[in-house]
Amino acid sequence: MQSAPQAAPEPGSDSAPKExxxxxxxxxxxxxxxxxxxxxxxxxxxxxxDRRWRRAAVARLDWERAPRGLYLDACAGTYDLALELCGRxxxxxxxxxxxxxxxxxxxxxPKIASEPVSAVCGDSLVLPFAEETFDxxxxxxxxxxxxxxxxxxxxxxxxxxxxxxxxxxEFTVPPNPVMRAGYLLYFNRILPVIGRxxxxxxxxxxxxxxxxxxxxxxxxxxxxxxxxxxxxAGWKLLSGGIAALHWGVA
Length: 250
Ligand SMILES: C[S@@+](CC[C@H](N)C(=O)[O-])C[C@H]1O[C@@H](n2cnc3c(N)ncnc32)[C@H](O)[C@@H]1O
Fold this sequence. Notes:
Rossmann fold, 250 residues, 9 helices, globular, 7-stranded mixed β-sheet, 20% strand, binds S-adenosylmethionine, alpha/beta
């Protein structure tokens, strides 16, 4: 077991984010392999702040418009964001939770056993649903992993009913220079080591900071929402800009 801090990956190395079909294969491999430790690592590495972020995401969904509606959680992983919506007082709807890494869905299976959540194994870039199916959609820490972010946001727009909201929760890089320095130190040096030790995966948690660094900032992502046809697109930084919420109305 190594414990020395890792340097940024060489382009072309396993952990450097890839493009196109290679990217999809890389991401599916990572999440399939880390699935058994994903929940533990999520809460440890974020110091449990991820729970607060998920609550904030659901609060932006405007599900109260259709409390008996059908909702999509894309890139659902082990269902934590889907469960956050199910747990809202007054929510009486149903959820479809989709992900292309089958082991993630299986790993989280016991958590949804008595919840109104149906799991679907599928690619968010070609969602297996008809147009205007859902009353709202969420994506937690998934959009950054898509091989084509624009295509993914367009696809989400396609499956939403007019007036339904999309809420995306993603990591971003804090704008404040002091905070950014601390964040980058943690993300580049500490997180990959903890991730490697706890998950046993040699490079999955080196991919994570790399994928955040190459992801569009909140303003650019807001523009991508608008280009995809969303109106009232907005965004809000969370925890000083470690994460950001994005939303838009279909
Ligand atoms: C960081 S996890 C987030 C899981 C969950 N949403 C959460 O908040 O904990 C990212 C998830 O996105 C999934 N994912 C990435 N790209 C995908 C794609 N193109 N289609 C479907 N799922 C995808 C991965 O398999 C993984 O389970």
